[in-house]
Amino acid sequence: MTKATTTADPRPYHHGDLHRAIVGAALDVLSESQSIEFSLRELARRAGVSHNAPYKHFADKRDLLAAVSAVGFELLAKQMTDATKEHDSPRERLAAMARAYVRGGVNNPALYRLMFGGYLTGQDDGRPAIERTAAENMKALLVDAISDGALGRLIPTAAANSREIDGAILIFWSQMHGLTLLLVDRLVGPREKMDELSESVLQGMLNGLANSIPVIPPGVWIGPPPGDSNLPSLALKG
Amino acid sequence: MTKATTTADPRPYHHGDLHRAIVGAALDVLSESQSIEFSLRELARRAGVSHNAPYKHFADKRDLLAAVSAVGFELLAKQMTDATKEHDSPRERLAAMARAYVRGGVNNPALYRLMFGGYLTGQDDGRPAIERTAAENMKALLVDAISDGALGRLIPTAAANSREIDGAILIFWSQMHGLTLLLVDRLVGPREKMDELSESVLQGMLNGLANSIPVIPPGVWIGPPPGDSNLPSLALKG
DNA sequence: AAGCGATGTTGACGTCGTCCACTTTAGCCT
DNA sequence: AGGCTAAAGTGGACGACGTCAACATCGCTT
User: Fold this and answer.
1) What is the distance in angstroms measured between the alpha-carbon CA of A1 and the sugar C1' of D5?
2) Contacts of residue A156 in chain B, CB cutoff 8 Å?
3) Chain A residue closest in CA terms to B128
4) What's the CA B53/C1' C2 distance, rounded, in angstroms?
5) What's residue B150's pLDDT?
6) Is the sign of the CA dihedral B112, B115, B121, B126 positive or negative?
7) What is the rounded distance in angstroms from the CA atom of residue A32 to the CA atom of residue B97?
8) Kindly report the CA angle at A148 between A147 and A151, in degrees rounded to 5?
9) Which of B119, B222, B228 is nearest residue A166 as measured by Cβ atoms?
10) Pairing of β A188-189 and β B221-222
11) Bridge-partner residues for B221, per DSSP?
């Protein structure tokens, strides 16, 4: 028999779906190394193609990163919808969404950083369109949950006033976003308490600091993580 | 006269304070290009030394980035203290600090991203010590402002309960951090409204969404910035 | 005055992103 | 059916990068 016709050819000249393979490899590397600094060439190696093949599917590295980031937004959105599906009351749905958002970031910090770390916001001010669409879709979920809450009188708002809804969304989003990134950066911890922390923060957000302080679980630290002490001092002049 | 002894020598063999010069060059490049991806070699070029001179002052690039980040934390802390100095009431001091924090990020996104973007949080879990010290100092300012507010009955807390203070700090910090990063990422805007936005968010945080919704200024957008429409649709399978 | 350690230089190596010319292949048009 | 074209993949090259090693120059201390 000839060598590559009848037998299962392990590597045909054309890959078939290299676009998806490259994005998948990027997600793998991101999860494994938890570092943003992977090389395009390594993705090609993982996909079993030459170092230049990806250029037939992505204009440049930034374009590839944008595609990966977009998938990240889609994954996050899916986790958020899945989480809310299990609950009925607006309060519980909001809490579930907050949990899913924080978990999404904490469980894959590198991907979250790629999505929100501004690797794509570059100089020409705009994010790639593909990524903006995905981000827009995710934001719509926040809008729904908050509007939902407003209708359910979780928030004292006549549903019509969209400016007020926007205010609530802004607070909710920035609150959860900030908590997630502080956890990811280990400026708050430990990460295992992320569910309790997101619940505390959500409760505090709803009640307001001027009315009652939320309880945060014991063992939580805020600021640089505890551990080695005797840190060096700094010198900043001029 | 000989050429390099009596006249003002433009470039002596030893620089004198290359450490500071390199960090300064990094801050310059960061401000100018608003991109994280600058090269160590370019900093050396700017400082007028060979591409290897910086290695006498920094173990590697990460070490240099940590030093830059530490300076960023110090600058931010300074802006925060300066801002609060002008005010007396706890409420105003807190608002001033929030404004300063958000401004710090928005006015130099690249530096803020370096500080919080996890370029240093790498795999060995810890940030460089020098940076942790600076971050710790900055956090202390938040603690003061919140404790201050608690004593001033801005927050209904007997001053002794540090767990409650921690809860308030966590909410305040993550709220401002999230707002700053959404602004920096242009997921909320426009940036010119940052002062009004931080005030709105602060007010909402104090009051609580369940009690009253803060007013956000007109013209604010949330989510991917408006502009070109007809964004492409996505495909996420498998 | 000597020398030693800190500081800076030169050259090299491997890797990276990207460009170019070339090859292979699938699918469409007569 | 058969050939053409354009998409998909290959291989080599280039300049820039981070880092290492060997060497050069200088200021301080004894």
Assistant:
1) 32
2) 210-213
3) A231
4) 27
5) 77
6) negative
7) 38
8) 85
9) B222
10) unpaired
11) B189
Beta carbons of A204 and B210 less than 8 angstroms apart: no
d(CA B136, CA B140): 6
Return the bridge partners of A221, or none: A189
Nearest-angstrom CA–CA distance, B112 and B138: 13
What CATH number matches the domain at A16-58, 1.10.10, 3.40.50, 1.20.120, 2.60.120? 1.10.10
Contacts of A84 (CB under 8 A, 6+ apart): A93, A96, A97, A100, A141, A145
Contacts of A27 in chain B (CB under 8 A): none
What pLDDT is stored for residue A220 in this prediction? Answer: 75
Treating both helix axes as pointing N-terminal to C-terminal, what angle do A18-33 and A40-47 enclose, rounded to 10 degrees? 120
Map out the domains of chain A as residue ranges: 16-58, 70-212
- Chain centre distance of CA B205: 21
Nearest Cα residue in chain B from A36: B119
Determine the pLDDT at residue B136.
84
Q: Which residues of chain A have pLDDT under 70?
A: 1-11, 13, 122-126, 157-161, 209-210, 212-216, 223-238
SS3 content of chain A, % helix, strand, coil (to 5): 60, 0, 40
Residue ranges of A 179-218 with Cβ closer than 8 A to chain B = 179, 181-182, 184-188, 197, 200-201, 204-216, 218
All residue ranges of chain B with pLDDT < 70 are 1-11, 13, 122-126, 157-161, 209-210, 212-215, 223-238
Choosing among 1.10.357.10, 3.40.50.1860, 3.90.78.10, 1.20.1250.20, the CATH entry for A70-212 is 1.10.357.10
Measured distance CA(B234)–CA(B154) in Å, rounded: 47
Q: What is the pLDDT of residue B51?
A: 97
CB contact under 8 A, A212 and B133: no
Q: What is the pLDDT of residue B22?
A: 97
pLDDT at A107: 95
A18: nt with nearest C1' to CA: D8
User: Among B104, B209, B102, B90, which Cα is nearest to B156's?
Assistant: B90
Cis peptide bond upstream of B190, omega within 30: yes
Q: B62-222 domain in CATH 1.10.357.10?
A: yes
